[in-house]
Amino acid sequence: LSAAMDTESTYSGYSHYSGHSKKAHRQGRDRHKSPRSKDGSRSEKSVTIQTPPAEPLLGNDASRAEEGQDDNWGETTTAITGTSEHSISQEDIARISKDLEDSVGLDCKRYLGLTVAAVLGLLVFLTPIAFILLPQILWRDDLEPCGTVCEGLFISVAFKLLILLIGTWALFFRQPKADLPRVFVFRALLLVLIFLFVFSYWLFYGVRILDSKDTNYQGIVQYAVSLVDALLFIHYLAIVLLELRQLQPMFTVKVVRSTDGESRYYSLGHLSIQRAALVVLENYYRDFTVYNPALLTASKSRAAKHMAGLKVYNVDGNNASGQSRAMIAAAARRRDSSHNELYYEEADHERRVKKRRARLVVAVEEAFTHIKRLQAEEQQKAPGETMDPREAAQAIFPSMARALQKYLRTTRQQQYHSMESILQHLSFCITNNMTPKAFLERYLNPGPTLQYDRDRWFSKQWTLVSEEAVTSGLQDGIVFVLKCLDFSLVVNVKKIPFIKLSEEFIDPKSHKFVLRLQSETSV
């Protein structure tokens, strides 16, 4: 356990701040101090800004400092703190402004729609009951006696209302998965249809039954039964429009992530653009690997390194366009040798990844072998002295910590795996008696986005950009874009072509043949 505590202090780089980030912040603080803070007329406020985990990796100095930081866990994950009252990042500004603009409108729209649907649903279920009870309350003495057929209709109304209630609960009472920019057209049409339908029934009931005080109570109950039957048919129509219509695949969409070009294909039915965008996002979190901006820094640093090696001397002092053309020409001359540098860089990176992967596999296998020895020793101990999975994970974690640290830094995954998440995963594997290969699967193969903590990948706000109205249906050739803060998803819609199949009949007799042997052979 003491070794585990030593390793925990070693891994505290996730929460401590590196000297590089402190130096950068001191420089930024000196630049952004206001005159009021210099004069001392206003006390400084302590503000803590947590930068996104991938932000420090985007600089050009990340690749140069990788080897120097290799033995320190999580140094690329930095946080900027200080006493400047003007310290704030661009991501925070965009997020705060977006939340302030959209939170009030989205909440009002959501609750208004739920309120209207709830009131209308309550009116629908109370209307047949009111049709039956109002004559009993207002002119009970004048009503004709209710016979056996009338009493049987009571049972029919009760069971039909119960079936309608269960079906409505299963179809409509669901937790919303997203806030769409526009209303769902078919659902709005169904609400309008139900309102007009119930209103027309109430209008007929008020004119023909309430005003005239009809004494035929069996006819009144039959009228209520017809209303419930019509509501059941409307519920069937809702199932067809909201659920069954979109099941048949009609379109194929290609989703491309703008940063790294990763793509997937999906088949969709008749959906509006906004609902197709919702389906794309649901599949994105499940199928796409987690977005890692650190993997894009190699090409950026390589391009910056090539451009930094070019020097242009301006003799006249006023030929800016000539400088640009000279740099472009020099870069074109160096293009022939750049592919060799790229080849050797990728080969060296692959060699380092394989080497540290092998070290990690050996370290984890040895740690799990130690677990088996601990389990054998625990069987001989008293029941009160056994070690729980969390303590066992902390006991064996130091033996694999350094190898895992180096591998995650080499593959640039360290910002997605905290020490606490690794310990939880290790204790989970120990609890379920999983093998070392099962433990390493999460780290050796980058998994889908949902595999990681929500705070590290979840984007709260997506923006749908489309030339067509988002309530219109999908069509062949439509392109729309889903944007978040760090990247965007470009969706291209193609219609599944019409396929014509023809049948060709093969005569069974055509498979028969005759083998003729010649008696005379040439010698």
UniProtKB/TrEMBL annotation:
<feature type="region of interest" description="Disordered">
    <location>
        <begin position="1"/>
        <end position="86"/>
    </location>
</feature>
<dbReference type="InterPro" id="IPR009539">
    <property type="entry name" value="VANGL"/>
</dbReference>
<feature type="transmembrane region" description="Helical">
    <location>
        <begin position="184"/>
        <end position="204"/>
    </location>
</feature>
<dbReference type="Pfam" id="PF06638">
    <property type="entry name" value="Strabismus"/>
</dbReference>
<feature type="compositionally biased region" description="Basic residues">
    <location>
        <begin position="19"/>
        <end position="35"/>
    </location>
</feature>
<feature type="compositionally biased region" description="Basic and acidic residues">
    <location>
        <begin position="36"/>
        <end position="45"/>
    </location>
</feature>
<comment type="similarity">
    <text>Belongs to the Vang family.</text>
</comment>
<keyword id="KW-0472">Membrane</keyword>
<feature type="compositionally biased region" description="Polar residues">
    <location>
        <begin position="74"/>
        <end position="86"/>
    </location>
</feature>
<feature type="transmembrane region" description="Helical">
    <location>
        <begin position="111"/>
        <end position="133"/>
    </location>
</feature>
<feature type="transmembrane region" description="Helical">
    <location>
        <begin position="153"/>
        <end position="172"/>
    </location>
</feature>
<protein>
    <submittedName>
        <fullName>VANG1 protein</fullName>
    </submittedName>
</protein>
<dbReference type="GO" id="GO:0005886">
    <property type="term" value="C:plasma membrane"/>
</dbReference>
<feature type="transmembrane region" description="Helical">
    <location>
        <begin position="224"/>
        <end position="244"/>
    </location>
</feature>
<keyword id="KW-1003">Cell membrane</keyword>
<keyword id="KW-1133">Transmembrane helix</keyword>
<keyword id="KW-0812">Transmembrane</keyword>
